[in-house]
Model the fold of this input.
Amino acid sequence: MNKFIVCFLCLLMARQAQSQTDTLALSEDGYLLNGADTVLEALVKMALENPRIKSAQHSATQAEYFWRRDRTLIYNQISVSGNLNEYSIKGKNSSADPLRQSTVYPRYNIGVNIPIGLIANSKKLTAANFNLYQSRLEDVRVEQQTVRREVTILYEQYQMNEALMRLQLEVLDDARLVNDRNEQRFEAGEITLEAYSASVRAYNAEKVKQVNITFALSQTEAYLEELIGMKYKDALQQINIRMSSTR
Done:
């Protein structure tokens, strides 16, 4: 049992050190820094294509369109009107009634209609939509950081559960050997039924631990696959191929 604890602590410390190295190699948006290429960084980059992030990016794009539209929305409310009298159209050589020509004045006029309330509120509306656009951009950044954190945690949990599984298989194998030996001793009358039953219970307890670790491993793998959008083993295969081609 002491050997199991020491091995587990050593593996845990090694994984923690590796985690710190991997995390420092990531930029704030989760992409690779300085050409670093680790499994964790590659998984984070895959997860940045997550539909959650794409949805946040679409919302930011929509907010940007609203903001740019409102910057020119005031022009839709401005109207220009004008008219020309008959004399202006036909000219001096026209055969129109001269008395009517003298009473139609001026020859032309132009008017502009600008709603005062629109001018007062247009700047506020544009500012509001600009702040909404900036908020949506922040949502994208927050979502990227959240996904990166989730991938990092799940990856470390997966590595830890894999290490626990390897250790547990060793412990389970030892418990099986002890139980088989005690079964032979019990059949030979060398130990009591209580001693043999205790050996069976210890062996079954180790099998239960293996089942729990297996479940935790598969659960972590499923959550990780949800983030990266593919099977974990397929992702590892792609990463290994890419890393081999860059060596």
Observations:
- The longest helix spans residues 116-187.
- The beta strands are 79-84, 108-113.
- The chain has eight helices and two strands.
- Residues 69 and 123 are 12 Å apart (CA to CA).
